[in-house]
Amino acid sequence: MMQPKIYTLLAILLLCMSCEDKPKDQAQILENDFAIDYEKFTLDNGLEVILHQDTSDPIVAVATIMHVGSNREKPGKTGFAHFFEHMSFNDSENVPVGANRKMIPEWGGSRNGGTSNDYTVYYEVVPKDAFEKILWIDSDRFGYMINTVTESALEREKQVVKNEKRQRVDNAAYGYTDEIIRSNLYPEGHPYNWTVIGSLPDLQAATIEDVKEFYNQFYGASNATLVIAGDIDFDETKSLVKKWFGEIPSGPKVEALQPQPVTLTETKSLYFEDNFAKLPELRMVFPSVEEYHKDSYALQILGQLLSGSKNAPLYQVVVEEQKLAPNIGTYQSNSELTGEFKFRVRANAQIDLDLVKKAIDSGLTRFEENGVNDRDLKRIKAELETGLYQGVSTVLSKAFQLGQDNEFGGDPSYITKTAKLTEAVTADDVMRVYNQYIKNKNYVMTSVVPKGQLDLAVENAKEATVWIEEVKQNVASEEVGQGEEADYEKTVSKYDRSEPAFGELPKFKMPTIWTGNLENGLSIYGIENNETPLVQFDITIPGGQLLDPTNKAGVANFLSDLMMEGTANKTPAELEEAIGLLGASIYMYSTNEDFHISGSCLAKNFEETIALVKEIILEPRWDESEFARLKQGLETGLKDRESNPNAIASIAYSRLLYGQNHPFAIPGSGTLETVKDISMADLKAYYTNLVPKNANFHIAGAMSKSQTLGVLENLNAWKGEAPQLPEFKLPLEVKKNTVYFIDVPDSKQSVFNIGKLALSAKNEEAENLYFANEILGGGSSGRLFQTLRIEKGYTYGAYSSIGNSLEVSPFTVSSSVRANATLKSLEIIKDMVSNYADDFTEEDVALTKNKLLKASTRAYESLGAKLGILRNISKYGYSNDFIEQNQAELIAMTLEDYKTIINSYLQEPDMIYVIVGDKASQWGEVKKLGKPVVELDIFGNPM
């Protein structure tokens, strides 16, 4: 997986407390003690190890940061760091083939890797009992994998990486823009001249010798940092680390790369016609400074000042005044060797990008004339203060931050300096970096326009060239398989490197849940958690899209946006500033069945934040100019959605399952047809449904029940009786056992949504069906993923899932496969689902139980996950110990129970197949599946 820089300015500081402190005291310590609690030591082989203790959950995170990214590659060998990351997961000397991707999820853990310009990271989070197992599997991947590489594994992984590139780049709107910018911003030979995923011809040419050379050069222990964070004992962990990682070869010394800033001698303007894009997009990229450079902190704040609020000059000119786009982004992007300051605008349909460029110039002139507003600077720093604490929400985020600051900043606690340097930024600093890096400086500008709309590109732009793959028809030419294992002599070790036993089984215990009520009928559900001085909250009001007027889907969604645009007493900019000065966030959104008012803040600012929530709810502004702007932005977003093959498939799939007369057949944001006649009167009519009766307030964080109820008394002024929710009938008959094909010409991938309506979350068998799905499509250990990606190399991922709603939800198999593997993939899915009940074994019963029971230990770590527990209780009427009850039900399930529920809900002949792909090459192939084939347009209408 490619990955950008994990650390950002919003993750300002890692704050820790002694595990001996009483819970009530922890938040106070976090607010006042800005020190990182860690221990660092170095093994004899040069591996730097950082330990951090957090006993709040019985889980452990392990992150290994290798100081090698795409910036260590050479022209002709691009994409190799990312490719090697994939290869590392395949096999190693002392671990069974494919175990890394399969066994860790089966232990109840999660795992992945990422590659950036500058590093490769491997990471896992596991229940505490699998701690030594993860050290075994992680150290074997690190130090004992190179002898196991085979030609078949090499070829299979090439196909997987190709699929990743097709999915993320070739089959995505604006996917080639990064390649265009890099090749023009950086001179040939510069380490950032190419993208992280690199060139497919380079990848295809990779050999085993290349893999071994790369490993031997960069994968020594002295070129890495290992971080272990979580419920650990330091002395025991040190001993285990020395055992499992101490014999890994140090490797050759890898010379540090020095900063390599670039200077452009001219501004470069380029255009590209995009096969998928539906909107014109303008980007401008200025060379800037590297990570940890003193100016990077002022540049980060400059980005927020230029476009990050309603007071920002670029937002005012581009969005509000000239109405050229729904938003504009400006931001500093840091890397190890240099940085980029970026402008990005995805304009409204048919907007000439020359107008956008002129508007940006006008906004920058306004910034130069007005300078930095002190209140805006104060607001941004307040927002960063809250972001500071959000960086400690999980043990994995702590591991990332400690490891990267150690490897790249030379200090695990460098983030403390980052906080101070950010706080020290002045208005003069911001203006200085603007003048030094942006004003009158050369840049690279791209005009990416929909195919056939060249007139929208910036005048005199030159055509950009990118290499575009031609997908071969013959799938056999790229057929791969598991192949034979390598023949090698195991590396000698003084330790037994066989799989260690599990430790003591950690048990999941439901957090204590308190409840209360307000006089106005609002029900309150809370979980007190004092690990950080933060709270997250959510008001859930039943209704959502269900209450949208007939033929006007999108009203609830539209209202959720408009209500955040000021109040009767505050302009949109004033409301935004009031929220920002508290370091809080407040936002609204609508789902199929609910309307949400949510937010987060420091606990000390909860009362003031709720006062703003009250004002937003009770005193809407009904601003006609904001209504018009938002409607234009909504239409732009809906047009943009037409460029996304995954969205196209999902919309058609829902429409087929729910039929023409059910609201779930249409996305909650609506369509261009349903939103065109929405008026302010429609929003005002819907607003009357936003009442506290039958609504639920959920809160998780550093607030007690009494504190919370005391603050929420302020909401008793909010009154009203709940409306009767309409009931909708499901279609009597769905044209099942049918393939629906949607043509997106020249697609490099075919997107699948396959399934049927299954059951409601209130159905007593809902959890059982969720359990039964795990073996089929639950993550990387599921049969779909293991077969279509690991064995065949057809896809980057394949999964199945069951929806969660009061209404009957679907069971869905989803994947995106390379175009010429469409038929073979469909045949595999069809057979796998058809035979699932018969193929389910006693071993699968035990595996499901073990996997899901242990996964619970890490599933509810964050405040957001704790809010999810409360929402499930209030919405579905679950008991306060429902997770423990579900676990008891899981333990009691027999093989016959699994077979019965699979046969009841997952009958393959009852399913529909929605495919979005290239008709010219795949229509004939899909017909070979033996099912009726119906062609739809991109809106789901029969052709």
TrEMBL record:
Pfam families assigned to the protein according to its UniProt record, in alphabetical order: Peptidase_M16, Peptidase_M16_C
Q: Name one GO molecular function term.
A: metal ion binding
Domain of life of the source:
Bacteria
Q: Which InterPro entries match?
A: Metalloenz_LuxS/M16, MPP/UQCRC_Complex, Pept_M16_N, Peptidase_M16_C
Q: Where is the Peptidase M16 N-terminal domain?
A: 49-171, 528-649
Q: What sequence ranges are listed for the domain Peptidase M16 C-terminal?
A: 206-384, 678-852
Q: Which family does the entry's similarity section mention?
A: Belongs to the peptidase M16 family.
Q: What is this protein called?
A: Insulinase family protein
Name the source organism: Bizionia argentinensis JUB59
